[in-house]
Design a protein that fits this description.
The protein has 5 helices and no strands. It has 90 residues and is mainly α.
């Protein structure tokens, strides 16, 4: 499943040659659970990085990149919907 786990270097040996700052949903979830994100912007930065890494490795029009882009759009939408509540928490 794309994005869920770090890319396996044995299965995709050239990935880490092209992607210098990898990120995946497991890592993002861990950062959320450990409260490593100080604000929404830093969380969204990692989601954007997910999109950028996919576009760089898979191509801008690849279905995995499109999924990552939809994830970014959905996160942004949900943050906007909860703006007042989230602002009070930050």
């Amino acid at each position: 499943q794309p994005f869920l786990l770090p890319v396996n270097a044995k299965k995709v040996p050239d990935y880490y040659n092209l992607i210098s700052n990898p990120v995946d949903l497991q890592t993002i979830r861990k950062r959320v659970n450990e409260k490593n994100y100080k604000n929404r912007a830093s969380f969204l930065d990692d989601i954007r990085l997910l999109v950028e890494n996919s576009a760089l490795y898979n191509g801008a029009t690849h279905h995995i990149t499109a999924c990552a882009q939809r994830l970014l759009e959905r996160c942004t939408q949900r943050f906007n919907e909860q703006q007042n509540k989230l602002s009070a928490l930050e």
